[in-house]
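Thread: quick sanity check before group meeting

JM: Hey all, I'm pulling together slides for Thursday and realized we never actually wrote out the predicted structure for the chain we discussed last week. Dropping the sequence here so it's in one place. If anyone has concerns about the input, flag it before I start.
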Amino acid sequence: MAFSKPLITPAAPRAAGDARARGSASGSEHDSADAQHVPQPAPAPRVRNELRGEVFRDAALGICAVVATVDGAIDPAMRMRVAQLIGAHEVLNGYSAEELRDRFEDNCARLIMDPAFGHAYVMQQIARALETPEQTGEVVRIGCAVGESDGALGAHATAVLAEACQVLHLDAAEFLPGR
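JM (edit): ok, ran it. Output follows.
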């Protein structure tokens, strides 16, 4: 799946006698010049602390699954779109790709195999985001992004997102125009 993020490797450490091996007595000229050309890893994106944690991760992956399987099945193209969306999210890409994929697939399997109990389980995961109010809006925004990933937000997806808003004590009109 497309959950993996690019690997950034730091420059290899220089051996202690490396500067002398190049012919410099002190090595300071070459070291300072080389230090300017060594690529530095990109700074980590600033992530709001309120959005870190297992509760947010589980709620976000739950809403991804419930919106992706709103028609009772999930096609490979939708799986790929959800994987890309999750991989691009500034908080969720901090988790291992395997962990995210496994949790998403588990939620999808629950929703497909037993829609009533699967839906109740996923809504319970989403409701846990109430522990931190800052998480609730972001969870719904992620669900909207998944629903809109294949074009317009369908009627079934809108109904599921409105239910998630109700569970999270949010005004659906804030996230779903025309609702």
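AS: nice. The chain is about 60% helix and 0% strand. The domain at 49-175 is CATH 1.10.3680 (TerB-like).
JM: adding both to the slides.
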